[in-house]
Design brief:
Layout lengths: L11 E8 L2 E9 L4 E6 L20 E6 L23 H14 L5 E6 L1 H12 L4 E7 L6 H8 L9 H9 L9 H9 L4 H17 L13 H15 L22 E6 L7 H10 L4 E5 L9 H15 L1
Parallel strand pairs: 3-4, 3-5, 5-6, 6-7, 7-8
Antiparallel strand pairs: 1-2, 2-4
């Protein structure tokens, strides 16, 4: 079983203007002359974590990481209720990836994404297949109506996390619980911290409740980062991920030739393996792995090992 590569710090970083007043934080790690790879974080709105750098052999890869619009160190920050999300959509993020590639002078690169990063990776590859050498996808999220029903109605993940679901519902009056996503949206977008603060915390608690197979202590996240995550995630969920009506499966023929590895935890409650399986059914050429002792997180040992095995094999 393969373990993390050692911790590493960026050798270069900067801010990139992408229009409408948005600036993206980006960083480069590893070997400046190595094989280019870009890491797409989850959320949406999750931002980068130091361990995201450790899926790649630093002696062989030139790794590009960046905070997507309005989260992490990118600006303006969605933790400010006044920050507009009007220009934060999937087409905007796809264009940002291309602009960053051009800015860094990279011709083609491996694309690595987990959870929302898998969604964005598929969308980017289908828009720019000529720029992608390989795809590594983890915790596949297709953002279909059925996928959202699983996450945000009593008929889905609530069956497995009843106490956490009850707490999620308790933050909303009974009269509004027939549309929890809409009710949370009204509160998360309220400029009053007394309204959006508790809503953002409740939203994040439900998001994190099913992140790993075995319970883990939730990370300590400040209120502004909680609000940024909740606002951006809700923005995408309530708009179908800003994906085309036919969804991502319809575009597989454009990327069928790209060597691809798909990894999903058997007990992934956030993005159950039926989504990865549906992708593999229309794309049997992609190498498909179910990790029998894992949930959603990319840091769980079995999942992590397969992801690092994929990047190591693609380097060779």
């Amino acid at each position: 079983m393969m373990d993390w590569y050692p911790p590493i710090e960026p050798y270069d970083s900067g801010m990139l203007s992408v229009g409408h007043g948005n600036e993206l934080y980006w960083e480069l790690c590893g070997n400046p002359g190595g094989k280019p790879a870009v890491f797409l974080h989850g959320g949406p709105g999750g931002g980068l974590l130091p361990d995201n750098r450790r899926y790649f052999d630093p002696s062989g890869y030139r790794v590009v990481l960046f905070d997507q619009r309005n989260c992490g160190r990118s600006r303006p920050f969605a933790g400010d209720p006044k920050t507009s999300l009007e220009h934060n959509t999937t087409p905007h993020l796809v264009a940002d990836i291309e602009r960053l590639r051009e800015h860094l002078g990279i011709e083609r690169w491996l694309v690595f994404g987990g959870s929302w990063g898998s969604t964005l990776g598929l969308a980017y590859a289908q828009a720019h297949p000529e720029r992608v050498t390989e795809l590594v996808l983890r915790g596949v999220w297709l953002v279909r109506r059925s996928d959202e029903a699983w996450a945000f109605t009593p008929a889905g993940a609530a069956h497995l996390f009843p106490a956490e679901w009850e707490a999620f519902c308790a933050a909303i009056p009974v009269t509004e619980q027939d549309d929890l996503v809409g009710a949370y949206g009204r509160r998360i977008s309220d400029p009053d911290p007394a309204v959006h603060g508790p809503a953002a915390r409740a939203w994040m608690s439900w998001e994190l409740s099913a992140n790993t197979l075995l319970p883990m202590t939730p990370p300590d996240i400040d209120d502004t980062s909680l609000l940024a995550f909740a606002r951006i995630t809700h923005h995408y969920i309530s708009n179908g991920g800003f994906l085309p009506p036919e969804g991502l499966l319809a575009g597989v023929d454009r990327i069928r030739h790209i060597p691809t590895v798909i990894v999903n935890g058997r007990y992934d409650i956030k993005t159950p393996p039926n989504q990865a399986w549906d992708l593999h059914r229309v794309w049997p050429e992609a190498k498909f792995h179910i990790v029998e002792d894992a949930g959603h997180s990319g840091s769980e040992p079995g999942t992590r090992s397969l992801l690092i095995e994929a990047t190591t094999r693609f380097l060779a």
